[in-house]
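Private note to self, pasted from the team thread so I don't lose it. Backbone tokens:
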């Protein structure tokens, strides 16, 4: 019994002294929407970084927040999806609401924009610089 207790104690001691596994950190970026404009025009991120976007809509009508490359933005500009269910990088923010989305970035620059009729063309978009 003494050897088992000693062996168990050594196992527990080794586990207690082992380095903790590094958990990935998530950075929060807050974006406001007012007068059909985003409060940020450029966001800098690192490749592989995960960002929690907290988007608050102070306007009296809805907006969306779509992250993607030029092809994604064109598809949404031409699309018919009136409401975006929460998925990474695609949300609808109702008037007066705050909504969150999390996105993990790869190695290329992206765009974020709103695709309510005329908003993207009006300039309701921004740039995400990766690197």
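Design output:
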């Amino acid at each position: 019994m003494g050897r088992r207790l000693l062996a168990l104690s050594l196992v527990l001691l080794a586990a207690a002294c082992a380095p903790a596994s590094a958990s990935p950190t998530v950075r929060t970026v807050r974006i406001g929407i007012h007068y059909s404009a985003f409060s940020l025009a450029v966001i800098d991120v690192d490749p592989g970084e995960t960002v929690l976007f907290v988007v608050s809509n102070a306007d009296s009508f809805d907006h969306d927040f779509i992250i993607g490359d030029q092809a994604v933005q064109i598809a949404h500009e031409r699309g018919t999806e009136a409401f975006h269910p929460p998925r990474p990088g695609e949300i609808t923010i109702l008037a007066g609401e705050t909504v969150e989305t999390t996105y993990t970035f790869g190695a290329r620059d992206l765009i974020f924009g709103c695709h309510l009729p005329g908003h993207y063309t009006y300039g309701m978009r921004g740039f995400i610089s990766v690197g």
